[in-house]
Write a structure and sequence with these properties.
single chain; 224 residues; CRO Repressor; 3 domains; four-stranded antiparallel sheet; 10 helices; elongated
Length: 224
């Protein structure tokens, strides 16, 4: 393959992808779904492989890009017009926390573990599960959160009060397993933890989906 052919194919592929991005719309980048992500990977592979295959000329690069772009465009139109196609291609948002309770079945359905869920919550400035009233897992993998009324963002200056620094919450039980490292951080042991959960009528950590400690507050526990 000579340098001139590479030059022509790179320029053609560049402008073909640029035009395709403009036609399809900005949502494929700013609100990318799983389907959009896979489409972008496939399209990149089609153009990338074509650049180094001597048997593929510029016309085939443009044709392949245009054909794939047409399929994406038709899919976008279908999802806009019919809710069935929108659900099929993009999925639906799932309420993974409702009234402060984790919906464990929806977590499993979305292949989301507790650590990932807590990570997403922290991105929304929710550092304790007890602060969250509702959490919705969006189709692009982000999370939307509604805090409980008493945890809504109100500045201390608005209330003209002083408040002591808050503490970091620590998960002590996740998926029925004790987090021994976190127990050490709060200077608890297994005996202390068992005493606390037994006072709530729970006989074994295996019965607990999630248990969280926060200084100055009661142990927050949710069973399966």
């Amino acid at each position: 393959m000579d340098y001139l052919q590479i030059l022509v194919e790179v320029i053609a592929g560049f402008f073909a992808l640029l035009i395709l991005t403009k036609l399809v719309g900005k949502t494929t980048i700013t609100q990318i779904t799983a389907f959009d992500f896979i489409s972008a990977l496939v399209l990149g592979e089609l153009v990338g492989n074509a650049l180094y295959d001597e048997n593929i000329r510029v016309g085939k690069v443009i044709f392949t890009t245009a054909l794939w772009g047409l399929l994406i465009y038709v899919t976008e139109i279908a999802t806009q017009k019919k809710s069935f196609f929108r659900k099929f291609f993009e999925g639906e948002p799932d309420i993974i926390i409702s009234k402060g309770k984790i919906n464990y079945d929806l977590l499993k359905k979305n292949h989301l573990d507790l650590d990932q869920m807590l990570h997403l919550l922290r991105k929304k400035d929710v550092f304790s599960l007890r602060e969250c009233e509702y959490a919705i897992l969006e189709t692009d993998g982000t999370i939307s959160v509604i805090k409980k009324p008493k945890y809504e963002n109100i500045t201390k200056s608005d209330l003209n009060i002083r408040k002591q620094p808050d503490s970091i919450p620590f998960p002590l039980i996740q998926d029925g397993k004790i987090e021994h490292e976190n127990l050490k951080k709060i200077k608890w042991d297994t005996v202390r933890l068992m005493k606390e959960i037994k006072s709530l009528g729970i006989n074994s950590p295996r019965e607990v989906l999630y248990a969280e400690w926060k200084e100055g507050e009661a142990l927050h526990v949710q069973k399966y």
